[in-house]
Amino acid sequence: MTIIITAFERSPDGGKGLARDTRVRWALEEVGQPYEVRLVSFRAMKEPAHLALHPFGQIPTYEEGDLALFETGSIVFHIAERHAGLLPDNADARARAITWMFAALNTVEPPILELATARILEGDKPWSKERLPLVEDRVRHRLKQLSARLGSADWLDGGFSAGDLMMVSVLLRLKSSGILDGYPSLADYVARGEARPAYKRAFDAQLAVNTGKPPTG
Ligand code: GTB
């Protein structure tokens, strides 16, 4: 059955891989599933045809036959459940990998998104200068905890899993801020994720959409 995902017709980041279709593409590349992409404009996202797939009018979505999913956590989990390569076979290790997926989305991503909001959408507010350091501190606090847990390991719990895919995807949003530089083991962790051939294919594919140049790999 053909898998179809949606992505921005033009991503606001110009193709730096920060829009969330990248993590879905990455998961599909890791498990070797081909997929098609339907590009949607900001206007089309709010129209009934797309709202039937995504109640909040966002990308990405995932269609496979009669199944339609939204939310990257659910989509990546679905891909990892259905195909080998992203979740360990051992039941306990599998549960821990899933836990890291939730940790990435529920515990690490919120302060990172708050920082993006504070910088991009609230940067011109009179209170922004006072608030920004507080938001940055909350991000640093999480990074310190995550870094302590990762230690000198390559991945969060044994081999690479959907938990790492999600955590690296979430941390990538910080790359341009310089904050990750204060946590060298996390910067290396993110670099390990980016070095995976599946990530590179996903990144190149979304970049090609945004630059009009075909992927090189
Ligand atoms: N919780 C949902 C999920 O994980 O799937 C969130 C989905 C989401 O935020 N989608 C965004 C969207 O459709 C695109 S990815 N926004 C349009 C809208 O809400 O109208 C978020 C995103 C967008 C742009 C950048 N960027 O340019 O750097 C980074 C991340």
Largest β sheet strand count, sense and barrel closure: 4 strands, mixed
Overall mean pLDDT stands at 96
pLDDT < 50 stretches: none
Order of strands, widest sheet: 2-1-3-4
SSE pattern, N- to C-terminal: EHEHHEEHHHHHH
The CATH C-level class name of the largest domain = Mainly Alpha
Provide the CATH architecture of the largest domain. Answer: Up-down Bundle
Helix content: 55-70%
And the CATH topology of the largest domain? Glutathione S-transferase Yfyf (Class Pi), Chain A, domain 2
Distance between the termini: 25 Å
Write down the Rg. 17 Å
What is the SS-derived class? alpha+beta
> What is the overall number of helices?
9
Structure, described:
With 217 residues, the protein is an alpha+beta fold. It folds into 2 domains: 3-85 and 198-211, Glutaredoxin (3-Layer(aba) Sandwich), CATH 3.40.30.10; 91-196, Glutathione S-transferase Yfyf (Class Pi), Chain A, domain 2 (Up-down Bundle). Helices cover 56% and strands 9% of the residues. The chain has 9 helices and 4 strands; from the N terminus they run βαβααββαααααα. The chain has helices spanning 21-31, 42-45, 48-51, 72-82, 91-121, 128-150, 162-172, 184-195, 197-211; strands at 3-8, 36-40, 61-64, 67-70. The protein has a 4-stranded mixed β-sheet with strand order 2-1-3-4. Helix 1 packs antiparallel against helix 7 (162-172) and helix 5 (91-121) packs parallel to helix 7 (162-172). The longest helix is centred in the middle third of the chain and has 31 residues, at 91-121. The radius of gyration is 17 Å and the shape is globular. The protein binds S-(P-nitrobenzyl)glutathione. S-(P-nitrobenzyl)glutathione binds at residues 11-13, 18-20, 45, 57-59, 71-72. S-(P-nitrobenzyl)glutathione binds next to loops.
